[in-house]
Every structure is written in structure tokens, then in C-alpha cells.
Amino acid sequence: MLLETKKLQVSYGRIEAVDQVSVSVEAGEVVAVLGANGAGKSSLLNAIYGLVGARGGEVYFEGKKLPARSTHARIKSGLALVPEGRRILVSLTVDENLRLGAYGRRDTSNLEDDLDAIYGRFSNLRDRRHMLASALSGGEQQMLAIGRSLMAKPALLMLDEPSLGLSPKLVGELFELLRELNEDGLSILLVEQNTHKALQLAHRSYVLELGRCVAAGTPDELLRHGKIAEAYLGHSNEVTH
Amino acid sequence: DDELVLGYVTAKTGPFVSLAKTNEIAAQMAVDEINANGGINGKKLRLETFDSAGKPEQAVVGVRTLAKDKNVLGIIGPFSSSEARVAFPIAERLKVVTMSMASSAPRLAEPFKYAFRNTSNEGYMFAQLMKILAEESIPSNNAAIAYATDDTISKVMGTAVFPAIFEKTGTDVKAVVTFKLSAFDFSPQVSQLVSKPTDLVAVGAPPEQAIKLVTELRRQGHEGRLVAGSTIAAPDLPERMGKAGNNTTLPTTFFANLNDRTKAFSEVFGRRARAEGERTLPAQFDAATYDIVLFFAHAMEQANVTGDPGKLEDERAAIRDHLAAMRNFPALEGEISFDPDGDALKPVYIVEIRDGEWNLLGAQPLEQ
Amino acid sequence: MSGYVEGILVILLLNVIFAYAVYWPLAAGQLNLGVAGFVGIGAYVSAYASNEFGIPPYIACVGAGFVAFALALVIAVPVLRTKGIYLALATFAFGQVLQSLFLNLEIVGGAAGYPVISYIGVGGIAVCTAAVFLITAFLDRTRFGLNMVAVHDDEAVSDLFGINVRAYQALAFALGAGFAGFGGALYGHHFSYIEPQNYSILFSISIVLFVLLGGTQTVVGPLVGAAFFTLLPEVLRGSEEWRYAIFAVCIIVIMIPRPQGLITSDQLSALRQFLVRDRLREERHG
Amino acid sequence: MADQPILSLDCVSKSFGGLNVIKNLSFDVRCGQRTALIGPNGAGKSTVFNLISGVFPVNSGRISVNGNDITNVPSRKRMKLGVSRSFQNIRLVQHLSVLENVLVGQTPRVTSLGDILYPIRMTSGSHWQCEAMEVLERAGLAAFARDHVGNLPYGVQKQIEIARALLGGADILLLDEPAAGLNPQETEDLSTRLHQIADSGTTIVVVEHDMQFVGAFCEYVVVLNFGEMIAEGTPQEVRRDPHVIEAYLGSDVA
Amino acid sequence: MLEQQLINGLMLGGIYVLVAVAFTLTIGILNFLNFSIPGIFMLSGVFTWFLLKSGVHWALALAGAIAIGAAASFVVERFTYRWMRSSDHYVPLVSSMGFLILFENLVLVQWGSDLQRVVTPFADLNIRPGSLVISIPQLVSLVLAVCLVAGLQQLLQRTQMGRALRAIAENATTAEILGIGVVSLVPAVFVIGGLFAALGGMLFALNYQQVHPFMGEEVALKGISAMVIGGMGNVWGSVLGGLLIGIVEVLSIHFLNADFVDFTVYGLLLLILFFKPTGLLGASKIVREKF
Ligand SMILES: Nc1ncnc2c1ncn2[C@@H]1O[C@H](COP(=O)(O)OP(=O)(O)OP(=O)(O)O)[C@@H](O)[C@H]1O
Ligand SMILES: Nc1ncnc2c1ncn2[C@@H]1O[C@H](COP(=O)(O)OP(=O)(O)OP(=O)(O)O)[C@@H](O)[C@H]1O
Ligand SMILES: [Mg+2]
Ligand SMILES: [Mg+2]
User: Fold this and answer.
1) Which residues contact B89 (CB under 8 A, 6 or more apart)?
2) Sequence-distant (≥ 6) Cβ neighbours of residue E21 within 8 angstroms
3) 3-state helix, strand, coil in chain D (%, to 5)
4) For a pocket test of ligand 2, which of A91, A131, A137 has the largest count of ligand atoms closer than 8 A to its C-beta?
5) Does this complex have an ipTM over 0.85?
6) Do E290 and A136 lie within an 8 Å CB cutoff?
7) Percent of chain E with pLDDT over 90
8) What CATH number should be reported for the domain holding residue C128?
9) CA distance D48 to D54
10) Chain E residue at shortest CA distance from D53
11) Which of chain C's residues have a Cβ under 8 Å away from the Cβ of E228?
12) Are E164 and A89 in contact (CB under 8 A)?
């Protein structure tokens, strides 16, 4: 077991954002977390990453219990997060943003190669590498956020709605990239609103509702679960008005 | 009660604690001595203290508190001109005598009937200084003036007192430079002075600025004698100026080695100050505060005050009248009278720093 | 009233006015470190008007407030070209220039200061302070206050929604300056003496401290801050020379859990929610 | 009337530094037409919105709304002339409640000093407040009215932005990626809601990457690539356009 | 005489430069308005006096004074920045001012408000080429400031640490997400800033041979002005601003008089800001998030 949360609890004041949620990611696995707005998906990732304090429960990574609220330690042990809202450093250039992605990384020998690989993936970024990140378009910022997290060379990558703001073509490419990375051994914990794509990629997934885990299983199992499928997959796709 | 209470507004915190704080030792010495001699009109004298932290608004709070809540017969203090300026009007309104020991800005007490100051006239004092320089045939043919522009008394020294008196003594003023109280770098001013060397450099400033100026003068090689008003008369000036301070000459209203009484005072003061961990040399403001207690005690005695809260207003007025009428009172600082403005007229001592020590050049008793 | 209470009350009331003088610019995101200069303008204008032309003190005070307001509107044009710390420093520099102007203005006494003849007592000041507070509280509840928050949080979006950002920033700056001038005038008439040394950067900073400590997000913040700054040293009077050191420690310790100040808008809305929340919760999740 | 363009861009160009972001772009939006502006990332869609709302000046070309040339009108006054917008990255006023944020949206219609100095945050009965509450209710946000916006779920914040933009009384609503971050169910709700708004007479222009949403909601689509229009037409038409597939949709959507 | 005045101005500017750099390190780099710097400057000055007076060997005394300044700065970080990052830029003003008040009052309680005379073990701390006088401590502070600034500039622009610092300045939480050890890097910046301020205070004490509890304030006001004139975050700007203020101050005393010093120095600051709202060398672009 690569990552495991045990009865994780996050609350803001009296709001229980994450209520006793236990999820796990095996090495080499892609796990998706689904749920409506405000279900607590981001809170779950943030708590795993140590950005918000958990009120209860534990997080284990590679069998070791992670200390509360130490992002630094998590990155050192191989976690990376593409945060919700991109969190680009707008006063730095694209290149500097990417380089900072490798900040916590021990082995910096292939840094330039990795940088080139990312520029190869996202040509928009290559063209703008010396521009301030503030000038990037929304989608370009999203690419930068993803690229930056890849620079860390993590063992487990957590992505919070990575397809947000990307063009359909790039969404396709992004999921292709994630699949390739996964095949190369990267484990992935994915929060996505693009449920179809997420379920195509994921080996297993969890569904959160008002902070609670209400369903879990393989994509097939979930798709068979009528109510869930309707709520999160938008069965009535062809809207007629 | 068999107590007579005097209020005392002082600064126990804030920017000039070092000058003001020891005043309390002197004031308490006076009170203790009076009480040891049987008190006033058979009653013990007591001080009621209020800390103004050197802030004008707080000085007003002090006067109000002491006058209205503590029913004091008179108030000693406040220390600085800024405080006295706002404290005097309120004291006038509350009809209680306030006597400051250090606020030497000109004509501060003039508009008020209840405001007094045990400070001396700088113009008179500096004239005495020049007279004694001449008597001692110390070269004083030409002079430069340096003063702080943002401090009332310093500016008065620089723009009125020094020029007028140099005019009278025929001293040639070759340069005038100015600085701000907050200045720490005097190199531009001194470079100007160095280019026209003079026998004297007259400085209108508090002690700190005089120390900085003299240090810089010597660094740039100016050898002129520093002369000043009593504003820079800090007792530990010789030590604080170091070698650079040699020959510095100034007038003061208190000289510790003057006579047996001042020596005795200095000794007791030193003992008490050491016990409290303060500066052991009495400053002129310490002596002035000591004398203020004596003035009040004398006036209270004369006015036969009882301390009865019912008669407070009358007794305060009586104290004021007796203070205003005081002539040639044998105080620690010498024989002292009050002029119609409420300012003290007192003797002047001209002192000079020589080898790290104060040295009396001459004394000038009060000219009525 | 006891003399002590009266004395402290006057200081408190004036500090409250000064706090609102700093509050308004801060509400629009400007740190005015030159507020002492505007206090001085008010004090001198009002003192001069009442001394030389016999204008009744209250009218002189209000008039002085308007003079400071007008001056601030004019100076706001170049000052508002700057932002953030640059703006703070520009106002600081302006305050220093004003102070040296007072020092050199011999018709109002220069360095020697200037006596003020007509007197305003504690009662008058209390009424004036209440007026300043009510004006502030009222404005805060209007669209003016609403738009001010919008300008503070996001200039670009405010502009797109039709708010004249520059005008709001200039008004906030000038309104603060007007209050500063008004407070300064009252100070002069109460303490009967004004001198340039009063209007230093240290004075400006101390007022800014009240407001930041009290909290800039709500109207009551500055009031609480001014009260705290005025009364805590009084409470600590017994600690003699340690007084201000202890005071400083209190400030540091308070800011640790409450960096946004003692009173914040979250807190107030949480309080309100606490009173009405359960119904809302049910509605939402029901 | 319906044929007359309510918004028209005429040879508009914009460059940043040396980078030509919009190149001689011209297109019209007809009154009441639900239009989408789509294109790859960095194509210049948000920039077009920024030019229309006046965040940046154009380098050349003309923009007109309702037949008025607004090219040189300051951004602050454009909402009064009929264009209102939401933002790709949520830009709500953090220190205000939901209701107050929506009240800010009314600013372009507030003209009298009396309205500016009316204690609107103290009372709840004014017509401004009633109107704002009504819009919130219709968006299903009434329960959040008094909450601070900062901590609300992303989807809710997006809807507040739309409500705020709506209250300016503008004829044209520019929505930058309104469906981003919403799940399919929520996207459907949004679509329904926008249909209502459009039916009440507001012209809606969206920038959106969710083709499902574009297909369901829009009548007309303009496709940008590198600042130039590469296709326009109905959703069905552009979906089949090989240029669009190549540059934007990618093979698997087609 | 004018040559001497120019030297005076440059030397005075050197002190401002050190303080300006100390400011720019926390404001320009960390976006943290740190008003404890005058307090640190003063502490190290006062300790220079105290240690020398207590008979400690001069080398030890000077090192000790600087160490105390740096340590004080470390303590300041512990109780301020750590708790209030990512709030409005002026919020830290309060508690850092709190530290200034605290430091001043602690010295006040311990040693009083008097100006204390620093007795140095050196006979004459000046070099005197011809009729000119140049103070060695001031010369040292100028040269040192320029060298340190050059190094610092390299560090900030070229290294991963520099990028990390700029990341923290923009958004500490984002920096944390990237694994930047905010809790270890920031104290380092404070300590470096403290070193600059302390060095300034120590050299001030040696040069002017005077210390007192409020000695930091005036210098700090000029130092912060120097930083702003030069442009925040740009360390060379601080050098330029410091020297400019020093020279303007000296020349206005020379040609006008002390009354005009504030007029000219702060008037200059005001004018520069009116025409160049981000300082002489400051970035003219204000970075903001895109719509
Ligand atoms: N900092 C915060 N303070 C208070 N409440 C918060 C905070 N962050 C989130 N919440 C609340 O916690 C709940 C869960 O939020 P979270 O962001 O984890 O949801 P989510 O599933 O990621 O939603 P979305 O799909 O919109 O991103 C929501 O009700 C939200 O309003
Ligand atoms: N202020 C600016 N300075 C320099 N370049 C800019 C600026 N604003 C936008 N750009 C560039 O212009 C291009 C268009 O940006 P825009 O935000 O309009 O894209 P977009 O079509 O909205 O893309 P997305 O779908 O990713 O949001 C981008 O490549 C961006 O880098
Ligand atoms: Mg989320
Ligand atoms: Mg965009």
C-alpha cells in the first residue's frame, strides 16, 4: 500500500468537510475521487498533503505515518500535488516556475532533460518560457501547474481537477500523458469533474458526498450503481430543451 | 488627616527619563528633611507622584488627577517645555500652582497666574559667561554659532541670545550652522566650521547634540572652545564628552562643590541614587526640584495651610500668593526670588570642563 | 467626573477620531503614514482662525477638517499614482514635509509652538467623537462603504463594475485627512497649545498601530484598537519603568493569533451566523 | 431587430510586447443569439473578452455594442453601455458576503447620490436588496446570501459571479468558462439557468471548453486559433470542421 | 571644502545603505514591512558600547554585537512573520513595531535614555589624506555594503534559493506546496537582514561614538526612504538610494540649512515617487493575476 488514509477528518469551524474518509492507493494504481461541488475532494487532497490540519485520522505513506501539517516532509518522501486553482507564481517566469517544481527533489541530475520533456509536451509553455507566468492564459497556467508538479518526479502524484480550463484536445493529451506516466510506474490520485475520462483511466475510484465516502470500487462497479452513475456521469447527456 | 500633599508630575518612562527620574530622589530628600524637622504647621508633607512618560497629554492627565482626585495643594513639574505648555493652562483652569523644574522655553509661564518655573534666564546666564571669559582673559574674539532649529529653547539661543550678547561683547560671529535635534551626523556642519576656525563655538542644544557636535569638531580638527547655555549642563558631561570636551564652558544654576550645603546635598543624593541604581551625580534639575519642594513648604507655612479639602481653593490661592511674593529665599541653589512672570531669578555659576572634571570659573550672585 | 477619568477620556476620544482618520484610507487599501501632517494642518488652521479672526471654536474645527479634506484631495492625485508600500512612503514623506513646514512657519510660532485661546472641554469632544463614529458607521453601511471594500479587495473588477476606483481612493484618503484635521483642531482647543514636534512620524505610526491592532475590516476595529492602546498603558501604570516593555509584549502576543486585528469581519459574520445559522443550514442541506 | 448585431468586432488587433495575440479579428453577435467563443488554449479568447470589456485597449480596430462605438470608452463605463462579464479565475470580493457581492453588481445602474448614501447594508427592504435576493433565489443561492464568499464551493462561487454580472443590467453577458469545474449534473443545471436568462432577453457569449455544454446551449460558435477566426457556424457545423478538429477538438472527440 | 562635503555625504549614505538593504531584504523579498530593524540596529550599537565598556576584547565585542543583532532578528521572525504571512502587506507593521518598542524599552530600563559615549580602543579611526578626513568605519560600511549587495543580487537572481525566496514573497502557501521550507528559509532571510542592520549599528557606534535607545529611528527613516527611492527588492536600488539621500542631506545642510533637510530629502522622495511610482530601479510592472 502506497498511500492510505484512515478515518481522515477535516473540519472548518463547524463544517465537516471530510468526515472519516478512508482511501488507499496501491503502488502503480490510478485512483479517482469523484463528487459534487463542495463534497470535500479538495479538502481530502489538501489534508493528505498536509496543507490543512486533519482533525482526526491518520495518513500513511509507504507504510509510515505522515506527520501533521508538514508539506515539506511529504514532498521529500515522494508526494506531489497539482493544487486546485493552479497556484502559479505569477511574479516568476514560466521557466522559474518549472524549476521551482524541482525544489524538493533530491536527484537533480536530469533536471534539464525533464524540463525539455515538459516543454515538449506543452509547446505553449516552451514559446513563453521567459515570460512572466502572469501573462499566461488560463489553460496555459493549468499546463504550467501540471508541468511543475511533474518536475518533482514524485512517486505519487495527486491532481485536483487537472483538466480544468484545458481544450478538449489537450484534455485528451493530458489523460494520455497520465496513462503513460502510470505505465512507467507513477501512482496517481485524481480528483476530476470529467468523470468519463477519469473513469477510463482509473483502476478504482471513490465517490464523496458531503464529506462522506458513499461508494467505492472499480469503474465498472460504479457504472452499474445506477444512482451514482446518474449523479456524476450525467447520463442524460443529450439535453433537450 | 495630618498630611499635606504635594503633587508631582514626572517622567518615569519615555525619552528623557535619565534627566527626570532622579529628580524624584531630590524631591523625596527635601520632603524627608522637612518631615524630620517636624513637618509643616505640625503636619507631615507627602508627595503624590504621577508618571507622564514625557507626553504632553499625559502631563495634563497628571495635573487633572492630582488637582481633582488627590486634592494636592500644589504641583511639582512637569519636566519638559512641551508638557509644561499644556499643563499650565489646565492648572490655571483648575486653580492650582504648578512649578516646573526644567522647561526653559521663554515666557512659558507669563500668561498664567498659577504657573511658576524654577529655571533661569538663559540670556542673563550667557552674558555672565562671556563676562567671566573676559575676566579670565580667555580668547573670545570670534565665534561660530550652532543650534538646533526644531527645539524652542535651542533656537532662541541660536537666533537671539548668542547674537545679542556677542554683539555686546564685540565678538565677531563668523559662521552660523544649524542642525535638527534628531541629527546624528554633524560632519557637514563641522566641515563648514572648520573652514573658518573660531575661538568659540556657541551651541544651542540639549546635551546630546552638544556631545555629538564636539566629538565631530575634534575629529575634523577644530580646536575652538565650546560655550553654551545651561541647556547642556548635565552633571556627567565631562565623562560623556571624553577628551573632546576639554575647555567646554557653560553656566549652570547648581554647582555641587560650591559650599558645604551643596556638598552635603550631593553626598546624600549620591547615596540614595546609588541605592536605586541611578546616576549618582546630582544634576541642576535635581537641585531645582529639591528647591521647589522647599519653596512650596515655605509658602505653605506662611499661608498656614491645613490641607482641609473644604478650604482647598483658598489655600491653593494663598500658596500662589506667597510664592509670587518670595524674595531672596535661601535655597540650595543660592538666594532665589520670583519675577512677575512666575520665573525664578537665581544665581549663576560658570563652569568649565578640565581633564574630565567640572571646574568653577566664577559665580555671579543674583542681580535684582 | 474624576480628573483622572476625564483626562484619559479626552485622550481616548481624540485617539478614536485619529483612528478613523487612518481607517478610511486603509479601507481603500492605503496606509497613510502622513496622517500626523493632516492632524497638524487641522490644528493650525483652526487655532489660527479662532485666535486671529475670532471664529467660534467648533466652526473653526469643522472648517479645519474641510481644509485638510481639500488639501488631501489635491495631494491624492499624485500620491495615488503609487501603490502599497510606495504609497505609505509617499504619505510619510508628505507628512515630513508638512512637519518641517510647521517648524518654519513663523506666523504660527515656528518651533516655539502656538497657543490656542478658545477652549473645548471633554463634553464637546465627546459629541464630536460620536459624530465621527456615526458618520463612519453610517457610510460603511451604504453603497459607498460597500464599494470601498470592493475597491480594496480588487481594483480591476471594481472598475469593470462601474466603480470609479480613483475617486473612491481619493475620497477615502481625503475623508481620513478630514477627520485627522478635525481631531487635530479639537486637540489644539482642548490642550491650548500646539507645536510642530507633535506632528511627527511617530505619532502617525502610533495611530496606524491602533487601527491595525483593532482590525481594519470592520468599523468597530479602530474603536477597539484606540481603546486598547489608550487604556493598556494605564492598566500597566503600576509596572513603572517596565510599562512600555510589557505593553510591547502584549502587542506582539496579541498579533500572533489575530494578525488581522482584534476584530475581523469573519468574526462578526460568524457571530451573526451563530445567531441565525441553524435555519439557514437546514435550508441548504435539506 | 434580431438580425442586427448587438456586438460587433471589426478588424480588432492586440499585441502584448512583440506577441500578436489577436490578429484582425472580426465577428458579430446577433441580438439574443447564444454564442460560444472556442479555441485552443492561448488562442486569445479571454483576451477578446478583455478587449470588449475594456481591460486592455485595442491596438487597432473597432468594437461596437448596440451600434455604439465603445472602442475608446473607459472600462468603467462599458457596463452602462451594455457589456457585463464574469471571469475565468473567480474574482469575487473576498471581504463581502454573497449578497453584498451581488449588490456590487448593481453599481452601473446606481446613479443618484441618494442611492449611494442609502444605508443598504443596514436594511433589507430596499428594492435593490429585493432584486438581488430574487436573483440569488432564482440561482438557488438564497441560503448562502449572508455567507462570506471565500470558503464557498467553487461551483457556488461561479454562480455568484454570474448573478453579479447579470445585475448590472447589461444586454450582453460575457461568461468566461462558466462550466469549468462543474460536474455533468451541475453543468446541466447551469445550462438550464442560462437558457432562462437568454430567454429573458440577454445575449450570452460564453468561452467554454466543455463541448457538451456548447452543443447543448449555443446556437452559434466562433472558433479562434492564434488570434484568428478559423471557423464559425452552428455547433454541429464547427464540430465537423477539420481545422477545428485538428487545432482544438483532437481526434477522439470527433 | 566641497570635496569634504561630498565625502561626508557618501559616508553618511553608506550607513543608510546598510539599513536600506536590511529593509529591502524583508520588504522587497518577503513582502514583510519589518519595523524591528531600527531596534536591531540600535541593539547592536548599544551592545558595541556595552561590551567595549565591559572590557571585552574589541574583536569579540564587535562580533558579539553583530551576533546579538542577528539573534534578535531571528527572534522577531519567530513571533511575527511565522504567524502572519499572506495577509495585507502592512499587517506585520504592528508586531514588528512591537519589537521596536520592546527593544527600545528594554535598553531604556537597563541603561536609561542617555546618550552613551563609546570609547573605542583605536586612537584615531580616520584616514586623513591632505586636508580631508575620511572615517574608516564609514568607509568599511560603504565598501562592505556594496560587496554584500553584489553577492546578494547574484543569489537572488541566479539560484534556486533566490527563486524560492521570491516564491515565498509572492505566496507562502504556494511555496509550501512546492516543498519550499518556508520555516527554515525565512528565518535565514531575517538573520541576513538582521546582520546588515546589526553591522550598520555597530559601525554607527564606532563612527559616531555615541549610542542611545532611540538611535535607530532616524537612521531607519532615511534607510527606508533610500530603499523606496531605489526601488524595493532591488538591492542595487538601495545602494543608489542610500548614497543619494546621504549626499542630498549633506549638500542641503551645506548650501541651505538644517530647516531644509526634511524638505529636500523627503521632497525628493515625494517627487521621485510622483514621477516614478516604483522607485528609480524598481520594476515598473505591477504583476497581477490575469482575468
Ligand atoms: N478554508 C475553508 N474554510 C471554511 N470552509 C471551507 C474551506 N474550504 C472548504 N470549505 C468548505 O468545505 C466543504 C468542502 O470543500 P472542498 O473544497 O473540499 O470541496 P470540493 O469537493 O473540492 O469542491 P469543488 O468541486 O468545488 O472543488 C465545502 O462546503 C466548502 O465550503
Ligand atoms: N498581459 C499579457 N502579456 C503578454 N501576453 C499575454 C497577456 N495576456 C495574454 N497573453 C497571451 O495571449 C495569449 C492569449 O491569451 P488568452 O488568455 O486570451 O487565451 P485564451 O484563449 O483565453 O486561453 P485559455 O483557454 O487557456 O484561457 C496567451 O498565449 C497569453 O500568453
Ligand atoms: Mg475542489
Ligand atoms: Mg481564457
Assistant:
1) B112, C191, C192, C193
2) E145, E148, E149, E152, E193, E196, E227, E235, E238, E239
3) 35, 25, 40
4) A137
5) yes
6) yes
7) 33
8) 1.10.3470
9) 10
10) E291
11) 85-86, 89
12) no
Q: Which fold has domain D85-169?
A: Rossmann fold (3.40.50)
As a three-state string, the secondary structure of B29-57 is: HHHHHHHHCCCECCEEEEEEEEECCCCHH
Q: How far is the CA of D181 from the centre of ligand 1 (A)?
A: 13
Are the C-beta atoms of E225 and C95 separated by less than 8 Å?
A: no
Q: Are D93 and C157 in contact (CB under 8 A)?
A: yes
Tens digit of pLDDT at every position of chain B (368 positions): 688 999 999 988 766 677 888 999 999 999 999 999 999 999 999 999 999 988 888 999 999 999 999 999 999 989 988 899 899 999 999 999 999 998 888 888 899 999 999 988 888 899 999 999 999 999 989 999 999 988 888 888 999 999 999 999 999 999 999 998 888 889 999 999 998 999 999 999 988 899 999 999 998 889 999 999 988 888 889 988 888 899 999 999 999 988 999 999 999 999 999 998 888 999 999 999 999 999 999 999 999 999 888 899 999 999 999 999 999 999 999 999 999 999 999 899 999 999 889 999 988 776 54
Q: How much is the average pLDDT of D202-220?
A: 93
| C-alpha cell at position B159 | 537666533
Rg (CA), chain D: 18
Q: Is D248 in contact with A168 (Cβ distance < 8 A)?
A: yes
The domain ranges of chain A are: 3-78+154-238, 87-152
For chains B and E, count residue pairs whose Cβ atoms are closer than 8 Å.
97
For domain D1-82+204-254, the CATH class is: alpha beta
Domain ranges of chain D: 1-82+204-254, 85-169
Please, which contacts does A39-44 make with residues 24 or more away whose CB atoms are closer than 8 Å?
Answer: A39/A208, A39/A209, A39/A210, A39/A211, A40/A10, A40/A208, A40/A210, A40/A211, A41/A160, A41/A191, A41/A208, A42/A84, A42/A160, A42/A191, A43/A10, A43/A17, A43/A18, A43/A211, A44/A5, A44/A8, A44/A10, A44/A18, A44/A191, A44/A208
C-alpha span between B331 and B351 (Å, rounded): 20
Neighboring chains of E (3 or more beta-carbon pairs < 8 A): A, B, C, D
Q: Residue C254 belongs to what domain range? A: 3-285
Quick check: do D and E touch, 3+ CB pairs under 8 A? yes
Say if residue A49's pLDDT is above 60. yes
Of A97, A132, A140, the residue with max ligand 2 atoms within 8 A of its CB, to mutate for a pocket test, comes to A140
Give residue A235's pLDDT.
46
**Each residue's pLDDT tens digit, D60-105:** 999 999 989 999 999 999 998 989 999 988 899 988 899 999 999 9
The domain segmentation of chain E, as residue ranges, is 2-223
Report whether residue A83 contacts ligand 1, using a CB cutoff of 6 Å. no
Count of D-E CB contacts under 8 Å: 13
Record: contact D49-E291, CB cut-off 8 A: yes
- Smallest Cβ–Cβ distance between E164 and the set A75, A100, A137 belongs to A100
Question: E165 to chain A: nearest residue by CA?
Answer: A100
Asked whether this chain's domains D1-82+204-254 and D85-169 adopt the same fold, the reply is yes
Assigned architecture for domain A3-78+154-238: 3-Layer(aba) Sandwich (3.40)
Q: Answer positive or negative: Cα dihedral of C208, C212, C216, C222.
A: negative
pLDDT of residue A236: 39
Concatenating the DSSP letter of every residue in B63-94 gives: HHIIIIIS--SEEE---SHHHHHHHHHHHHHH
User: Cβ atoms within 10 A of the Cβ of E284, count?
Assistant: 10
For the cut 80, the answer to whether the pLDDT of residue A115 exceeds it is: yes
Beta-carbon separation of C269 and D115 below 8 A: no
Q: Which amino acid is it at E267?
A: G
> Is the CB–ligand 2 distance for residue A135 below 6 Å?
yes
